[in-house]
Design brief:
Length: 333
């Protein structure tokens, strides 16, 4: 039986199916490489022509953003039968959900990488709107694993509205959505990068503690929690030692209901994560009874941390490596 083709891509197997379309493992017949091919199903949209155009425009924008924690996007196009598709790097890894509750010495570097990728898209005016551990792959690569944000199916440009958003459609997973996504913003305001920052705060809380910041069982309860409930204090998973106060306060600030009270930049978040990583490593070397005096290390003295900490265990990234992972290509934000 002849394999189904979409443009120059020969479909191999279905990788996933969602409300807006499908993702297939496919082979690029021109270059002989495997790709992940995301296809929109126009039957799901009231105005498919406009949505396909938006899909193409935003796909081309994402294609122009380079960061090692974002997949390479090879092509955005429309087949002869009218199906919009996006061909991207095919990645083999495990979802971030498999890293939930692991040692913060292993997970903080991944969180910094994700933060760097979010900064890169924020600089270009893109809001992801569906950040969750399921949408992040951890891929083996060299000495340290690399976190990759893999699904931009509902990303949008800041300030641009569509028929879908005007009609009041909700996008994203309720456990990780921001108050702005389930609440009402003034007409003159729109969702911006701080919405992703909140969702990233929920992801960070979940990965670090092994739990979600709010207790809820139903969609309505989750919506109410994001709008009104205070998140639980961040606690380490299992029998692990307490987190540095700096880390607890950072995650709490990311989860502020008022977006003006959240950290003012992704750089600020990356720096706080790097310092927290250094403090946890220092405490681990000294033993479980070590008090949290390392919380008093001022942010402006971060350059002195490597001089005071013991030799790091093999395979543990340094502060410089953590900061570099978050910096990469894009600058600003």
């Amino acid at each position: 039986m002849t394999a189904r083709r979409i443009g120059p891509y020969e479909l191999i197997t279905l990788l996933g199916r969602g409300g807006m379309g499908e993702v297939h493992l496919a082979r690029d017949t021109r270059r002989g490489r495997e790709v992940a091919l995301k296809m929109l199903d126009p039957r799901h949209f009231d105005d498919p022509e406009n949505y396909v155009e938006r899909f193409r425009r935003e796909g081309e924008l994402l294609r122009s953003i380079q960061h090692r924690s974002l997949p390479d996007i090879y092509e955005v196009g429309v087949s002869s039968t009218g199906e919009a598709y996006l061909a991207m790097e095919y990645l083999c890894g495990e979802p971030l959900t498999h890293w939930v509750g692991r040692s913060p010495l292993d997970t903080i570097p991944l969180l910094v990488q994700i933060c760097g990728a979010l900064r890169a898209i924020a600089i270009r005016g893109v809001v992801h709107r569906d950040l969750s551990p399921d949408n992040i792959l951890v891929v083996p690569q060299g000495r340290h694993p690399v976190a990759k944000i893999i699904d931009f199916g509902i990303a949008k440009e800041v300030g641009r509205t569509t028929k879908l958003t005007e009609a009041g459609y909700f996008f994203g997973k309720l456990q990780y959505c921001s108050p702005e996504q389930v609440g009402v913003l003034p007409p003159e305001e729109s969702i911006d990068w701080r919405s992703d920052l909140y969702s990233f705060g929920v992801v960070a809380y979940h990965v670090l503690s092994g739990e979600l910041p709010f207790r809820a069982d139903t969609p309505v309860q989750y919506m109410s929690a994001h709008l009104h409930a205070r998140p639980r204090v961040l606690k380490a998973a299992g029998e692990a030692s307490a987190f540095p106060r700096r880390l607890e306060e950072l995650v709490a600030r990311m989860l502020e209901k008022d977006r003006t009270k959240r950290p003012g930049s992704y750089d600020e978040v990356i720096r706080a994560f790097a310092l927290s990583h250094a403090q946890i490593l220092l405490a681990a070397e000294k033993g479980p009874s070590t008090p949290r005096e390392s919380d008093t290390i001022p942010t402006e003295k971060m350059s002195s941390v490597p001089e005071t900490k013991p030799q790091k265990k093999p395979g543990t990234p340094s502060e410089d490596e953590i900061l570099t992972a978050g910096a990469d290509t894009e600058e600003g934000a």
